[in-house]
Amino acid sequence: MSRSTRRGALAAATVALTLTVAACSSSGDDSSAGPTTSSSGTGSAAFQPQHKGGTLKLVAHAAAGSLDPQVNYTLQYWQLYQSMYDGLLSFKKVGGQESFTVVPDLATAMPKVTNSGRTYTFTLRKGITFSNGKALTTDDVVASFERIFKVSSPTAGTFYNGIVGADACLKKPASCTLPKGVIGDAKTDTVTVNLTAADPEFPYKLAVPHASILPKDSPTKDAGTKPLPTTGAYMAASYDPNRALKLVRNPHFKEWSRQAEPEGYPDEIDYTFGQTVESEVTAVQNGQADWMFDPPPADRLNEIGTKYASQAHVNPLTAFWYATLNVNMAPFNNKLARQAINYAVDRAAVVRLYGGTNLASPACTILPPGFPGHVDSCDYTKGGGKTWSAADLAKAKELVKKSGTAGQEVGIVVQDDDVNKSIGQYLQSLLTQLGYKATLKPLSANIQFTYIQNTKNKVQLALTSWYQDYPAASDFLNVLLSCASYHPGSDSSINISGFCDKGIDTKMQTALKSAQTDEASANKQWSAIDQDVMAESPVVPLINPKLIDFTSKRVGNYQFSKQFYMLVGQLWVK
Amino acid sequence: MGQVTDTLPRSREARRSPGPWRTAAGDLLRNRAALAAAVVLLVVVVASLCAPLYAAHIAHTDPFQSHVSGTTVVDGKTVPVLTPSSTGLGLGVTPIGPTWDPAHYFLGADNQGRDVMARLLYGGRTSLFIGFTAALISCALGTVVGVVAGYAGGAVDAVISRVLDVIWAFPVYLLAICLSVVLLTNGLRLGPLTVDAGSLWLPVAIIAAIYVPYIARPLRGQVLVLRNKEFIQAAIGSGAPVPRILRREVLPNVLPTALVFVPLMTALAMLTESALSFLSVGVQPPDASWGTIIEDGLGLLYTRPTVTIAPGLLIALTTAALNVLGDGVRDALDPGARLRGGV
């Protein structure tokens, strides 16, 4: 399970969000926008100069491709970009729940929202300089928004298509201009962004790296391995995807907001690629590396958890692993058959296969615990209850019998890494027990995610996972299970189950509208939708995973952002 | 008298003459190394054939079903088959190790909680089946192709030889992996012949196909030499039909060579199958082969190395035995080869 591929997968997956945005109506409310407020939270701890300096050594099995922040869509580099690039807004650089908070970054304050939620006005901070020595101007902001389309950013058509003029830019990226969509005023240092419809999630979309502000003269194509100038604490000095990435301090950086872009501790961050995961573990154990990107292999977990417990940091993720059941193909076009699988799956077994109870917890809902809209609820547990306690194989067999689907063939498609394959083998064994003729098809992680989305491949059951883009219930329910996200015959049909329930879809649209004015009410609606969807059983939630960060003995000040994971620049090695 | 004394010894000698096959069998039985190898093979084959008996009546387990949440008995105590770590941060889950109790996970469990010993025996059936069947098919096809190309000559030989060259040009494993990846997705459909994606016949067909040139080329060379021999020329001169010449004159002369290839190719095919299965493009789960068991054990190398080492040892033992036996068969069928230093 490569964390680098997850975001890549999302690139193809967020088509549904297009329609989400379009469906949002104006609220008529001219108050400050945003699902979160910048003033809330505890704020970041003060900088401790005695820990400044040294070289932080990171290792990964492989690099994550292009270094261009408007192109790359991997957690591996999004994590680094937090200390390199800035947008008008950003997620707060702190650990814990506060990390979901959007705060002003290159903007002086949260935007003024007018025109029924369709116009966002930002004032740029003064005195910010790119790492190439050029001052940040409103022209850079306008050019950066246009560049999102010019470089065909993976989320251009989903996150930013609501900007006025985006339609034309999506059709002709090379000549993209947004004269009415993004307007800069150099005299007042303001930038106005006009949307075609209100989008309560727009601040989140401005806080992800694809909305990074780059110099206006940046190339209008993927910069690839050539580092682009940064505004943040670090800049890339060199990058060779086959060998290493070297980050050094941005000589022009002066901390303007500790919440948005804090000063970093290490003088240099060396990221080395090409090691095996086993050797990564050994390198961290020996102090030859300070952190490993890849999840430690299963047979080293016990060793890490005992001998190196003080160096292991385990954090729950707002994500879920699940099995998709194709509601348009036998046998899972039968609701009873789908429910049977939900009853039959022993989530505790899946937790074990993932690495144990301290690395995952059983899932029974689509929205992960701690996520907006999540409410404990479990329709498919033995004896009933709000959380999953045990599988009910007897009931599952009874449902299969009732459905009349026993004996049918079921193909299971999984990724071919150890964890995915072992869960797939378990599901195959379980389906055989239920009376199906199950076959397992492990595919390379590079192709499995697109393969299972395309209806032409007739995938009946697939194992996959979903990691949040930003903290909104719609990022799970609407993206994964709305009618709009089902595109038969396309590789970008993230509604892998092919589930389309008009009644539930209407409820989703209502919840999206509610989110513009009353987030709490919207979240209640989303939790009800979660339960409605689970009653139809198009998916089988399996586990909510946790992440291990394994750091060397000398590393201090570990902080885990729920949005972008470990804050690399905040680690100290002195 | 003279006639009598002249005739009797000759007829006695004729009765005593055991014939080439019996001579070869005698030579083989006198070859201690080959005999030992045959015994080892026999033990492996019999043990593998007994896999269902072991699983059902001794281990009382289904080696193809996951037992992730299962329990077993060790020293009278009920313990989980997969034990979550209870020390430190409690990270990771470790399958039970060898108990040396045939009734309860003799060689321990894999990451699905399946009995490794039972899977080893079932894996042996699969690996031996694929190895032997693929070798037989490969040798049979290779013999036919080699004989036809060598005897026909001209355009037929040129076409067949170039096709063999093309196959030969690809590294064996690369070709096998490519074929496997393609065929494992959709299965094999050749006219009326249909092989499902998960069928064991798929790796058999792939392995058999890629090794055909390795048999056909040396046999073609042998036939080219034979074709100019007097007895073949005599048969041609006497107007014998080609199929009859091939069947009666050519085939009996190349058959010993083809037979020598069988045990050697079986070993090679088993190794190839193991490699493909290890790379997930051979035998598909839940079926077990020694290669798949090694792959299953790879993620347990630090905690439960037995899962990897046991099938590895069996592969090494079996292929070594097949090679020694193959050498014995070669020496028996073609004693001259020993002097020449090879087949």
From TrEMBL, chain A:
Residue ranges of the region described as Disordered: 25-47
Domain of life assignment: Bacteria
Keywords: Signal
CDD domains from the UniProt entry: PBP2_clavulanate_OppA2
Signal peptide span: 1-23
Biased composition (Low complexity): 25-46
InterPro entries: Peptide/Ni-bd, SBP_5, SBP_5_dom, TAT_signal
Stated name of the protein: Peptide/nickel transport system substrate-binding protein
Organism (species): Streptomyces pseudovenezuelae
UniProtKB/TrEMBL annotation, chain B:
Presence of the UniProt keyword Transmembrane helix in the record: yes
Entries under CDD domains matching the protein: TM_PBP2 (cd06261)
Region feature (Disordered): 1-23
Primary location class: membrane
UniProt-annotated location(s): Cell membrane
Keywords attached to this entry: Cell membrane, Membrane, Transmembrane, Transmembrane helix, Transport
A Pfam short name: BPD_transp_1
Membrane topology of the entry: Multi-pass membrane protein
Spans traversing the lipid bilayer: 33-56, 128-154, 166-185, 197-216, 250-271
Residue ranges that the Swiss-Prot or TrEMBL entry lists as coiled coil: none
Highest taxon above the source species: Bacteria
Residue ranges occupied by any ABC transmembrane type-1 domain in the UniProt entry: 124-326
Protein family (similarity comment): Belongs to the binding-protein-dependent transport system permease family.
Identification of the protein by name: Peptide/nickel transport system permease protein
Organism expressing this protein natively: Streptomyces pseudovenezuelae
